[in-house]
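== Sequence entry ==
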Amino acid sequence: MSNIVNYLVERYIRDTLPKNTDLLKEMEEFAFENHVPIIQPEVAKLLEVITKINRTKSILEIGTAIGYSAIILTNAMEDGKLVSIEKRSDMVEIATNNIHKAGLSEKIKIIEGSAEYILPALNEEFDLIFLDAAKGQYMSFFSASINLLKKGGVLVSDNVLYKGMVASNEYVVRRKRTIVKRMRTYLDYIMNHPHLTTSILPIGDGVAISYKD
């Protein structure tokens, strides 16, 4: 159980979702077997909906992992491209292979390296930014990427409730205190940002959706 919502509610929501087949199913099994974090099914469906509603044509993803969310986001665009940043070379190799299998190599570009150095060097704007990297660095990633988000664009921040620890000290593990403190600071900041309208949703591990005015 995630400590975000009641287990029965969580299970019901996931049971209502269509199950993936072929490549995405293989990726889910790989992630489970190798303890690689990927977006939860209900979050994946939310990303699809947001991408379609916003008629998204360009996406910046911070945190590629095995390429699971990159493939889902790109498939949700009618005609668009995605740039994804990943610092682990082993993940870049796996993600590149998965993206090739999905037939999306022409639409997805992976940049290997630390986001804190790569983001300031980017000179294009995006309709949607998906933040799904090191939780303790969200403020830094935000500061380096918010100017890359178009006016009217959407920022989606994943894992913002962090197994419920952000919402209640009752769940906080001692070694996670710093991450929790930083995430609370991040959420407080984007909730009160003068150019963002933000809502926090208790699905998956917690998702914040921010609209840039």
The chain has one domain: 7-212. Strands lie at 58-62, 81-86, 108-112, 126-131, 149-158, 196-201, 207-212. DSSP finds eight helices and seven strands in the chain.
